[in-house]
Design a protein that fits this description.
The protein is α/β, with parallel strands linked by helices and 398 residues long. The protein has 2 domains: 262 residues, Crotonobetainyl-coa:carnitine coa-transferase, domain 1 (Rossmann fold, 3-Layer(aba) Sandwich), CATH 3.40.50; 77 residues, formyl-coa transferase, domain 3 (2-Layer Sandwich). The protein is 39% helix and 14% strand. The protein has a 6-stranded parallel sheet. Strands 7-8-9 form a 3-stranded antiparallel sheet, covered by helices on one side. Strands 10-11 form a two-stranded antiparallel sheet. Helix 2 links the parallel strand 2 and strand 3. Helix 1 crosses helix 8.
Length: 398
């Protein structure tokens, strides 16, 4: 009960990842999150990715953690009525159906707010609840494309690549959703009024594309693919090492360039008028990258990192997951937490983020078995009789 979100009840009726990830973030900090799944098969995330010994995938075990699973068919009149009763005793609903779907079922925000005026509903969809594309389907890959992110990912003149994780827009939309839910809960606390939080998958990616929009509007600049480079700053890229690895170097100002030239044993480069300033270095991008790349390629990765560290140059090896599991920083920050799951045995999952000094998050358990909280939700919280409970189970409404 000391967790900061203890006492907040969340009904997660969404599927797959974006809106549910908001629920995961809230659950890490103590919210009571009931994952509402279809009685037959449950959430599709249970089958997405590599299977754990529990039968569900590692994606499910990680991203449904700290939640309780209950089954309920919202498309049936009985299921919808049970859901309305749950809404009356809850604070937040998370959903990611196509706009209009819940309204068809009589479970849109306006109808639910009549039951619970303080209700906060997060609505995540491909394009948001409004606009000419609102009815279109979409996933994270589509959001990456529509937002402009995928256009920038890859090498010049080649087919754009996946920008990191194929689920990046899902995670980012879940984070923006969590921010929106917390703001809406604060507003409800002050006014007694709930509200809808509307996130389009593409919007979460478009919002983080730095100066892309103002640079185009103000100067007509259309950024193109640059591989590992960035448009305004050099050296700020990925460079090879003598032992077959790559490192990221970031010299985002003139002082960092001075430090790098010192680490390279060529401090005179910092004074060379061709390279002394950010605009000058940008104008000589190929020369700078050749100088830096030649130096990095002459050293093994650990010696290179040591030299950069000695001169306070920002650097990192491009880490594989094997590197991450061996790294002392990840260990010191509890970024990898191992728990003993009763279904899957030992599981190592990403640690919660962010870290709070007084109310830290907690990894209590991995993704739950399908329907593990049915009795708690329907018998204990709603007070459904044993006879009715067994009838609902028999008819696969729960």
């Amino acid at each position: 009960m000391n967790a900061p979100l203890a006492g907040i009840r969340v009904l997660d009726i969404a599927t797959f990842l974006a809106a549910p990830f908001c629920g995961t973030v809230l659950a890490d900090f103590g919210a009571e999150v009931f994952k509402i799944e279809q009685p037959e098969g449950g959430d599709s995330l249970r089958r997405f990715g590599s299977r754990s010994d529990a039968g569900d995938t590692f994606m499910w075990m990680s991203e449904a953690r700290n939640k309780k699973s209950a089954t309920l068919d919202l498309r049936t009149p009985e299921g919808a009525e049970l859901f309305r009763k749950l809404v009356a005793q809850s604070d937040v609903v998370l959903e990611n159906f196509r706009p209009g779907t819940l309204e068809k079922w009589g479970l849109g925000y306006a109808a639910l707010a009549e039951i619970n005026p303080r209700l906060v509903m997060l609505r995540v969809s491909a394009y948001g609840q409004t606009g000419p594309y609102k009815a279109r389907p979409g996933f994270a890959r589509i959001a990456h494309a529509f937002s402009g992110l995928s256009y920038l990912a890859g090498e010049p003149g080649r087919v754009p690549v996946v920008p990191g994780s194929t689920s990046l827009a899902d995670y980012m939309s879940g984070l923006f959703g969590a921010i929106g839910v917390l703001i809406a809960l604060r507003h409800a606390e002050k006014t007694g009024q709930g509200q809808e939080v509307d996130v389009g998958l593409y919007e979460s990616m478009f919002r983080v594309l730095d100066e892309l929009a103002p640079a185009f509007a103000g100067r007509g600049v259309q950024r193109e693919r640059m591989g590992a480079d960035v448009i305004n700053i050099v050296p700020h890229s990925h460079y090879p090492t003598a032992d077959g690895h790559h490192v990221a170097l970031a010299c985002s100002n003139d002082r960092m360039w001075e430090r790098l030239t010192a680490a390279m044993g060529k401090p005179e480069l910092a004074k060379d008028p061709r390279y002394a300033t950010i605009p000058a270095r940008a104008a000589h991008r190929d020369e700078i990258n050749a100088l830096v790349g030649g130096w990095t390629a002459s050293l093994p990765v650990q010696e290179l990192i040591a030299r950069c560290d000695a001169d306070q140059v920002p650097v990192s090896k491009l880490m594989s997951i094997a590197d991450i599991f061996d790294d002392p920083q990840y260990a010191a920050r509890d970024n990898l937490l191992t728990i003993d799951d009763p279904r899957a045995g030992p599981l190592t999952l990403p640690g919660p983020v962010p870290r709070l000094s007084r109310t830290p998050p907690e990894l209590r358990h991995a993704g739950p078995a399908l329907g593990d909280a049915n009795e708690e939700l329907f018998r204990t919280i709603l007070g459904v009789s044993e006879e009715d409970y067994q009838d609902l189970r028999a008819r696969r409404i729960i």
